[in-house]
Write a structure and sequence with these properties.
7 strands; 14% strand
Length: 314
Amino acid sequence: MKEGHLPVLAEEVIEMLQPAAGSLQIDATVGGGGHTERILEASDPDGRLLGLDADGAAIARVAQRLERFGDRLVLRQANFRELGAVAPAAGFGAVDGMLFDLGLSSFQLADTERGFGFRAGGPLDMRFDATRGVSAAELIATLDATELTALFRRFGEEPYAPRIARAIVEARGTGPITTAEELAALIERVAPRTPPGRRRIHPATRVFQALRIAVNEELDALAEALAVAVDLLRPGGRLVVLSYHSLEDRIVKRFLDAERKGCICPPSVPVCVCGRTPRLRLVTHPSLTPTDAEIAANPRARSARLRAAERIAA
């Protein structure tokens, strides 16, 4: 474990990506740099990697920790939805491998300044890039109960969304909710505990997930980035995606299935008129999940799901 960060499904990522000497790779979510480091080691001596992250703190941390790789590592602070512009500009217009690790890094969860996690606490910000967009605190302060309910249901699949939304609106009548601790405590008071026999999660888990997804427009960004990723891959290049909840995984699965089939004509059309041909073949079917041993060593890996596909000649 290096500096508090343990990359998820690290061996499987390398096995699926197959980085080789001289190859060009993109890690679209550098995070703590664990996967980045392993990809660079596996593509020694002259493989190069472009690492992106919307979080400037992640870019700075990885630049320092992995400086031994010199110009083999190119880092850019950017959301992966900007891949189409950032990658070619950095000399990565056609690549051999692309990784998306969609989870929060251990560093972000422990950050006491941005409120990603209710255990670390801190101001309710949750933006990956603190210079852009609307904070979680602003959403909590301005959305009405109906809008909050819809947000918690859509992005958190929260069964007690209406109850939590009403409690938030009532509580902010006496003062703003500005910290992760305040919001988590409020949810804990009004949401039932996990029933006996089911895996225990904190009652605030789904609401925090929903707010983070909304603040960073994560699902829209993912759909956009996957489409660009396929365009950037050379024939034979690999796309590997690690997701951590069903909303992400559903987008990835449907995207890979569509690119595997090619044709998007409705079943009622007797012959293909869209002209689309398959661009990917599945490498993982079904998806890969962590072993019990990995989950014991790294509990945040427990919900991870890896899907991989290979670009075929169009």
